[in-house]
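note to self — DONT lose this again. spent like an hour looking for the file last time. sequence + predicted structure for the chain T wanted, 254 res
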Amino acid sequence: VAEKWKEKKVKEVEASTLEKNWRRLELYAFPKFGQIPVTDILPALIIQTLEPLNQQGKGDTLKRTIRLINEILNYAVNYGLIQFNPCLNVNAVFNFGKNENNPTIRPEELPALLKAVRDSRLTLFTRCLIKFQLLTLTRPVESSGAQWSEIDLDNRLWSIPAERMKTRKAHIVPLSTQCIEVLSYTKNDKYVFQSARTKDKPMNSQSVNKALVDLGYKDKLTGHGLRAIGSTYLNEYEPMISPDVIEACLSHSS
């Protein structure tokens, strides 16, 4: 099943990314249950297999490995090999620790962040970009490079072409009323968030990171970490939303 999943992913992600992900599976999953029928892959087996990573404090590797295992099990569901994925919530067992690369804050801390943004001396475009990233759950380079040609205001859709996506797969984002309001402040020519120095270029994707440092969030929150706020809220506070839907919103899967 993993091999079949890999064949599908070849057309969806960078070769280097797929190679790293496959290596994680080879190191942490396949030795223990690579030869076990997919119908017998249950939470207890996953937990027992990955507990060493948990004990070693390798939270990021643990989280990524669980995500990959669930992608394969979800593929098995769609392929008709199993009726459902019993391991969707295995990550709730583990404490992944702090993400040093992309630190983030809890959803409960979001109001304080928004107040700080509102009361700051940041430029209008920077404030709008922060809100746009929060509302769309997109990556910094995807949101900062948004083009008006990608925006369909009538149908409230933002269609990001494959070449601008990390996954190299086109991604469509429904635009909420709040998103439409943000866009009303950013009327430019080509780019939604235009560079203040060069009209034919977008804002730097690091603009939000710099703004967060200026707001006192250094080592607490990054532009990429904004996505995690939405992900955490949806996973913890909206139990009726399928994890597959949340992953699709984050453009982790289709």
